[in-house]
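Thought: the user asked what Cytochrome P450 looks like in 3D. I have the sequence; next I should run the structure tool and report back without guessing.
Action: structure_tool
Action Input:
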Amino acid sequence: MDEIQVVGNTFMLPDCKPWIWFEELSKQYKAELITIWIGRNPTIWINDAWAASDLFEKRAGVYSSRPRMLVFAELGAGQDNLLNMYTETPEKRERWRAHRKLIHHAVGVQSVRKYRQFQNNESRLVAHDLLRAPDDYVKHFERYATSVVSIIGFGRRVESWDDPIITEVIAMMHLAADLNVPGKKFPMLMETFPFLARFPNEIAPWKYGLGKKRAFHFFYALADEAAQKEGHEDSFVNHLFSEREKYNLREAEIASLTGNLFGAGSDTSSSTLITFILACCAFPEALVPAWEELDRVVGPHRSPSWEDEDNMPYVKAFVKEVLRWRSVAIIGGQPHAPTQDDYYKGWLIPKNAWIQGNVWAIHHNDREFPDPDRFNPNRYLPGHPDSRPFPNERGYMTFGWGRRVCSGQALAEQGTWITVARVLWGFDIKKKTRPDGSTVEVDIFNYTNGLNMRPQPFECSITPRSDEIRQTIEREGKQALQELEQYRGETKYRMSTFYSRNDLAMDTYGNEKK
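Observation:
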């Protein structure tokens, strides 16, 4: 009993995919909310869409703050990062609003439409790359997603999948996502016993990868470098430097806002597109209505455009189902924290408690989504027998809630639609056939264990649907390369530069010990 009082349920949590365990507990106890104790800290898990809407949306003023987070915040991304900022005092709310306003300037609903031309061209190159090297679809999606946010952020595109900004930044994001999985014993113990953070790195393996200052130096170096180059004055980093005096922005804040831009649109968007390919392989029947609609509305001599969206309700529903079926941010991002004691259906939710939405459970509730593991775009067709009521108009909660909804939601939805529509239009996507004629099966449950989950590597077949379409893809790909030439550029900085204490980086942008 004494051990339970000290460490709570920490050692009860499964190491792998704890969100499924939370879902099972919710069903077992017929409870929308369940409480798990991490040490003496309660973590409340919402496993119901309507409860999540009631608390995070309708009571957003109460639930827009963050709890103290030692691993991800104080030792990782920083408590003064937009993702982790407290909002329980007027001063902290004002700082959070300033950061939110700055990031909205880059990727808010009103901003992302101006990116459609280069986003469309980068999407055209995805189709062109799939034509050339279909087995490398993961690399193509990662290059595409990272290039879009790099153009927005720095005014330069990412031309190759092996550009270090892809390989290093995505690796860092995977590490951060892995560290923050509930059930990871060392991170959870550090949250319970903060004094463990004082141990030197040499004897503290649980602190591996938490060098937040080095990440700050890296992203600030990228921002400073881009701002000093001529051209692309409308880039996000140029906007940050132009607003620096107005908002009294520190270097660490410029770095975190720049890093957040990558978090809002690189790993998450590419993971969504990989899930799209998996769904096509596992549920080929879902592709047939999409092809019929695309052939009728678009035809073979051009690829889809955003102007086609309202004329293709099934493709629109298909994209929504991709976002619902296997959401990337499976527990809705960082935990919320109420700024005061609150009650929900008689249950006390204490001030500063960790409270999280279990997106897996919400998106796999039979009430809203019958047969939830089946990929079924008909759920999103108005009036269809498979459609069910949901507390928001979108029909999914993939990007979080309320005032803490993902900043990059509009950009991600815009890019996901055009790329999914284009790849559906252009390719027959199916399970791979071995030389002996047997089929390589896919596993729809074989996903990574990080907070941003993606399918484990799988083989598939991606081939052009017709010779006419192949010719269109080639023509549009060449045109896209020409139009994207204005964004050609490179950086001399690497994240590994800062982790290895390279003289250029550390002399210019500081030292970890400062």
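Thought: the tool returned a structure. Summarizing for the user.
Final Answer: Structure for Cytochrome P450 predicted. The longest strand covers residues 33-38. The chain has one domain: 2-509.
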